[in-house]
Specification:
heterodimer; A: about 140 residues; alpha+beta; Thiol Ester Dehydrase, Chain A; 5-stranded antiparallel beta sheet; 4 helices; 5 strands; B: about 190 residues; 6-stranded antiparallel beta sheet; 7 helices
Chain lengths: ~140, ~190
């Protein structure tokens, strides 16, 4: 496992990109994995007229986008056994079939409390293949050392 | 929307049991204007969730995360974690299962609802073998830019009543049952 120490962390440090391309198959697969079978994600026929997002196509689950953003965090945190304690997101634009979602994160705050309680805040962002913002979020990660 | 679209993805027992038709019981879903904020009582979910390895793995795979700590039991066992580690947003699968179809909180199944954003806190990791139950209550309801927002606070506990996580789950909903019915019929209905 990688060792990331609290002392080694600096504000403005970036975590590696997490990138996924999605389509209707992805949405169905996520519905099964999450139990969220909302037709806005799963039913291309229904959405042509219902259009909750005012577009006649299905959109990705917001929770899938949030999952991608958190996968960027877990890829960085889990090998070092850091503990994720909070996750928040705000969805800006619905993800459509055929898009690629690029999730990035940067350490924006370093909270120096005491060993075992020190934590960082990461500002997270998800953008599509054209650089359009899809979602923003934050995660808090506690260091064991 | 064909059940066969989903069946070919099934890898767990719960997936075979879970009701995939979000239209069928839509008339029973709580509407935005029906939520009772007078009571301070915490409401239990319809059912509990016994965590199996297949459940955690299925969530990670559905979210396109092939982290071996989440999907490879042998790898995870050999790691310093000693066991499978859930994806943080595994909460979603647990919540939908525990809330069920006809009980309180079933508005999360509303056809046409929109996800504005979410807040989660994690206290202790979920573990294979635990049985999770939820307690939830209405947290806030508001109108913003002509959209109707609702959120509930859901606390997740294991069989020993150790609190594992909290999720303030939020959606933009149709305002009334009549608006919800329009969505079920395939008519755009998010304007009040």
């Amino acid at each position: 496992m990688n060792k990331i120490t609290f002392d080694s962390i600096e504000v403005r440090q970036e975590i590696p990109l997490f990138k996924k391309s999605v389509d209707q198959e992805t949405f169905w697969g996520y519905a099964v994995g999450s139990f969220d079978y909302n037709p806005v994600h799963c039913d291309p026929e229904w959405v042509k007229t219902a259009q909750p997002f005012s577009i006649p196509v299905t959109v990705a689950h917001g929770m899938m986008t949030m999952s991608f953003m958190m996968s960027a965090v877990t890829n960085w945190a889990y090998p070092a056994m850091l503990k994720i304690t909070k996750a928040t997101t705000k969805f800006v634009r619905p993800v459509q079939p055929g898009w690629t979602v690029n999730c990035t994160g940067v350490i924006s705050e370093k909270h120096v409390i005491c060993p075992g309680k020190n934590y960082v805040v990461l500002d997270l962002k998800a953008e599509n293949q054209d650089g359009e913002l899809v979602a923003i979020g934050q995660a808090e990660v506690v260091f064991p050392d | 929307m064909s059940y066969e679209n989903f069946e070919r993805f099934f890898t767990t027992e719960k997936q075979k049991q879970f009701d995939t038709d979000f239209f069928q019981d839509a008339e029973a879903y709580e509407a935005w204007d029906e939520i009772d904020f007078d009571s301070d009582e915490e409401i239990p979910g319809e059912q509990t969730f016994l965590i199996k390895a297949e459940d955690m793995k299925a969530y990670a795979m559905g979210a396109l995360d092939d982290n071996p700590l989440m999907v490879d039991e042998e790898y995870a066992k050999q790691s310093p974690y000693g066991e499978l580690v859930p994806h943080p947003i595994f909460l979603t699968q647990v919540a939908f299962w525990c809330i069920g179809v006809k009980g309180k909180g079933n508005w999360i199944r509303t056809p046409g609802s929109r996800n504005p954003g979410q807040k989660m806190e994690f206290y202790e990791p979920f573990r294979v073998g635990e049985t999770i139950h939820i307690k939830m209550k209405p947290n806030d309801r508001y109108i913003k830019r002509d959209k109707y927002y609702l959120n509930y606070k859901i606390d997740f506990y294991n069989q020993d009543n150790v609190k594992k996580a909290t999720w303030v789950v939020a959606l933009i909903l149709p305002k009334t049952k009549a608006d919800l019915k329009k969505f079920v019929e395939g008519i755009h209905a998010l304007e009040a």
